Amino acid sequence: MIPAELFERTLLDFFAPVRGYLEDPEVTEVMINGPSTIYIERRGRIMRTPARFACERDLLAALRNLAQYVGRHIGADRPILEARLPDGSRVEAILAPAAQDGPIVSIRRFSREPLTIERLIAGGAMTEELAEVLAALVACKQNIIVAGGTSSGKTSLLGALSALIPAGDRIVVIEDASELRLQQPHVVRLEAQPPDARGRGAVAVRDLFRATLRMRPDRIVVGEVRGGEALDLVQAMTSGHGGCMATVHATHSLDVVNRLETMALMSDVELPLTALRSQVASAVDFILHTARLADGSRCVTQLTEVLGYDGAAGYRFADLFVRRYGRRGHGGETRSQLVATGAQPGCAELIRAMGIALPDSMRAPAEVGR
Question: How many Å is the maximal CA-CA distance in the chain?
Fold first, then answer.
């Protein structure tokens, strides 16, 4: 494997046509649709750039250099590459014959400074009131799923949320591709591995999850639930491993639990659907929704509690916070406000027993008068 120092010095030369965008802190995504068509996302908006590679051969050389650094292979026999740059940026590349118009590359960039709860509040993505509630939920080890669509900021929000975990807890992070950056001192980072050119050495997220349960974790954080590991996560949540966190691609609360069902059914364990749904409802305590709005801004849109599952009525939910939308501003910005619904979380008594006070809007009338 090429030494990191040498690779870092040479990589930007291979990606010279997009080097400026890779160094621009406002660019969050670089999308290369073949050597001559390059787009970027800046401040939530996608725009085409004049940049281009001289030829397809130059773009392929850049990808092969990257593949060599991460110890993976890319070619006609293995046309998909998942990798990351030295600064942590995630790279997904697809070659012919899978990509018909030439090599397709997407580079997801992350801020040099980890997103924090304070920055989310300052930017209007969440309120101090919601932050207080989330801190209370994390403290009493509630299981939280961060949900949203593509490029809605799920991973960044999960990273910010994980900062609320007490410093003394042992945190095991499991990811398909390493992206999360946690600030706590006791963090164990695990990353799935694809097979080598001979099909050997693959390590799936499920393999890592099973191993994690024997590593005395206080908290388990899964970067993204994509497949059969959903069943392992649900069973861990319901068997004493509280305070788990994960992200799921879904837009609504019902979509989240339905997706967890579907992915759990992808495992090699057969369960009656009713039993699986009861487990999912028991495992997931809260769903924190994030979205990218029409003006490109990303924000928390909802905090929902999963109340349970009833065979006749299905899943039951209660919204604790929701985002209300107004008219668009003169500059095209989306005007909105995140407000509490007045509902109390089911774990309110546990929160109070820990000596933590909920915001006034979430306290029972008798408590507010005290």
Answer: 72
* Token output for 13: 């030369």
- Which positions ≥6 away from 305 have C-beta within 8 Å? 285, 286, 317, 318, 319, 320, 343, 345, 346
Report all structural domains of the chain as residue ranges with CATH numbers, in order of start: 4-108 (3.30.450.90), 117-368 (3.40.50.300)
Which class for 359: exposed (0-12), middle (13-18), buried (19 or more C-beta within 10 A)? middle
Separation between Cα atoms, residue 38 and residue 18, nearest integer Å: 8
pLDDT tens column, 119-175: 999 989 999 999 999 999 999 999 999 999 988 889 999 999 999 999 999 999 999
The first and second tokens of residue 271, run together, are 């369960």
> Is the separation of the CB atoms in 174 and 222 below 8 Å?
yes
For 202-217, the pLDDT digits (tens) are 898 889 988 998 899 9
Closest by CA to 95, choosing from 83, 108, 86, 104, is: 104
Cβ-contact 125, 293 below 8 angstroms: no
Residue for token digits 């040498």? 6
Encoded tokens for 322:
């929701």
Give the C-alpha distances (Å, rounded to integers) separating 70 from 2, 67, 81, 207, 219: 9, 5, 10, 21, 28
Question: In sequence order, which ranges of the chain are alpha helices (DSSP H)?
Answer: 4-14, 19-22, 56-70, 117-122, 128-139, 154-162, 205-212, 229-237, 253-264, 273-283, 348-353, 365-368
Residue 92: partners with Cβ closer than 8 Å, 6 or more residues away:
80, 81, 82, 105, 106, 108
Q: What's the whole-model pTM score?
A: 0.87
Distances (CA, A) of 102 to 18, 36, 276: 17, 10, 43
Cα distance between residue 77 and residue 192, in whole Å: 21
On whether the CB atoms of residues 59 and 103 are closer than 8 A, the answer is yes
CB burial of residue 25 (10 Å; 0-12, 13-18, 19+): exposed
Distance CA 39, CA 85 (A): 19
Distance CA 358, CA 342 (A): 11
d(CA 314, CA 216) in angstroms, rounded, equals 34
Which of left, alpha, beta for 181 (phi over 0: left; psi -120 to 50: alpha)? beta
